[in-house]
């Protein structure tokens, strides 16, 4: 759940409250309103009906969401990094850098993001896809959070974006599973980021951030490049690129951990 704090980055993408489905109240009525909004956004009725079939509120998601405030602020950088930047992770990450050397070199040349930072993100988020990518149905999770009135417009955007992932055929519904805020895949993209920054780097016609390592790594680099990453420039604390990394995660503690892990991979 390291990307949970980044949800607020997408507030500007939110639909106008005057046009948003009404939060709270009857959940099935809310889903009907969301279905209308999704159709207006270009999602077919068949995709919507398939995705919404049998969807109910998930109280565990709401409970988890309410527990997550200040998750990084409770630990210092030293405390947090000591649990994340550890020898077994560094060893595995270095091995994967060697295994994917040609791929990473091509991505670094195209997007300008250092291979060490890309692999650091990949490792910190889900242990390079071997760790917990989440086991929750994304549509149910986002419908639950959108129905909750605290950040309804934000999650309504994410819910419609998840439906667009299905519409594009990037993932089937059975694979549209993720974490407690709807994050998907090996570097935990929210659906709106999946749509905006996802890259079909293996050339199979789909952006698959759960299974395709080329898509995962290129999309991660593309997010940073699109938000102003300066190729060849430093990215430690206080630099312009460190600020660009806010688009990945607003937590300074987390970004400093990303930098530290990158430095370890260079050693």
What does this structure look like?
This protein has 267 residues and is mainly alpha-helical. The chain is built from 13 helices and 2 strands; from the N terminus they run αααααααβααβαααα. It has a two-stranded antiparallel sheet with strand order 1-2. α4 crosses α13, α7 (115-126) crosses α11 and α8 runs antiparallel to α9. The longest helix is centred in the middle third of the chain and has 17 residues, at 152-168. The radius of gyration is 18 Å and the shape is globular. The model is unreliable at 1-18 (pLDDT under 50).
Please compute the radius of gyration using only Cα atoms.
18 Å
Proportion of strand residues: under 5%
- What's the average pLDDT? 92
Shape: globular
Q: Considering DSSP H and I runs of 4 or more, what fraction of the residues is helical?
A: 40-55%
- Which strand order spans the largest sheet, edge to edge or round the barrel? 1-2
Spans of at least 5 consecutive residues whose pLDDT stays below 50 are 1-18
- Helix tally equals 13
């Amino acid at each position: 759940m390291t990307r949970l704090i980044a949800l607020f980055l997408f507030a500007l993408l939110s639909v106008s409250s005057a046009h948003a489905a009404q939060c709270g109240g009857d959940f099935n009525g809310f889903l009907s309103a969301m279905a209308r909004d999704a159709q207006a956004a270009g999602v077919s009725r068949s995709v919507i009906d398939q995705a919404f079939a049998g969807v109910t509120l998930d109280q565990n998601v709401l409970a988890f969401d309410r527990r997550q405030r200040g998750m990084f602020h409770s630990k210092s950088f030293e405390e947090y990094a000591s649990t994340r930047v550890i020898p077994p992770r560094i060893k595995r990450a270095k091995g994967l850098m060697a295994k994917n050397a040609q791929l990473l070199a091509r991505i670094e040349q195209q997007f300008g993001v250092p291979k060490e930072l890309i692999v650091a993100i990949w490792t910190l988020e889900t242990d390079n896809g071997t760790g917990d990518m989440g086991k929750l149905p994304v549509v149910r999770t986002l419908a639950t959070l959108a129905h909750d009135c605290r950040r309804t417009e934000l999650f309504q955007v994410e819910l419609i974006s998840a439906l667009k992932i299905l519409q594009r055929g990037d993932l089937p519904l059975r694979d549209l599973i993720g974490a407690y805020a709807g994050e998907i895949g090996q570097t935990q993209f929210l659906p709106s980021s999946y749509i905006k920054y996802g890259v079909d780097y293996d050339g199979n016609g789909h952006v698959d951030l759960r299974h395709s390592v080329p898509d995962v790594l290129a999309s991660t680099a593309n997010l940073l490049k699109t938000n102003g990453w300066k190729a060849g420039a430093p990215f430690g604390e206080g630099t312009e690129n460190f600020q660009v990394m806010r688009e990945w995660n607003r937590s300074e503690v987390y970004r400093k951990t990303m930098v530290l892990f990158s430095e370890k991979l260079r050693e």
